[in-house]
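Could you join me in thinking about how sequence relates to backbone shape in a protein? Label the sequence line and the structure token line clearly, so we can match residues to local backbone shapes. Once you have written the record down, we can walk along the chain together.
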Amino acid sequence: MLATTDNTTTYDGDAILQPTLGLCNGKIEFVGESGSNINNRYQIANSLNIMMTGNRPNTTSPTNTAQNPFYNPNSNQPNELDADGFNKRVDFKWYFEKICGIGQYPNLIYLTTGVNDIYYGGWTFDLIEPTVERLHKVLSRMKAACDEIAGGESNVVIKLMNHQFYPLRSGSNIFNFDVVKQRRLWLDLYNGYYDLITNPSNQLTFAELIDCASKFDWEYGYSTQTLPVNNRNRLTEKTVLEPVHISVNGALQYADCLINDFLCDERFD
């Protein structure tokens, strides 16, 4: 969406792919892709825990979501955790220079804030605080790597996209977790992320939040299915097929938020 210069509207099922008319032409170079699959070329890790501790390097398979591109398999460091919780072979500086070139670093990093760290841990409120602490460590380590490459203060900006909450009309008991508990825990986790970024004492002035959640159309942002109301009449109702992963429509709504944020950011004019 950001890089297209096509001025013709196209479609993906019922989703309308609006042209950007070359607004970002020449302004963006995507780096760090994990594979050739167009739907998830830049999905490079699916939890903070994997980014910090994973020892499976990036591969050519974009379906392997457990991979950690920041893990340097050729590092001379031991394959073990350090006192700060990072694998000693996790090297953001090495990765940034690998994808951007020696002495170069990304100007802009988008990081999605999901709940996989909570899910993998058993969907408990006790995981909120350590997960927020993980995010703080990852953001600080990325900034430090860019500063080291720059030989001083870098101008990197890390932007966090907050995801939508579960659709309000979903009655699904996803992964055996109560629906009300899912939503409350998700909300508390994102409040923790928000406080982390906005509290000046955390010194994360290089990090920003992009509010995708409030602009997300939960009614039409998921794939749906039509089911009978009961087996004694012909009445049917449309319900959300799976209330965790968004549809193409939902993904395009996110893309609209990113396009607006990018184009309105004067630092990248």
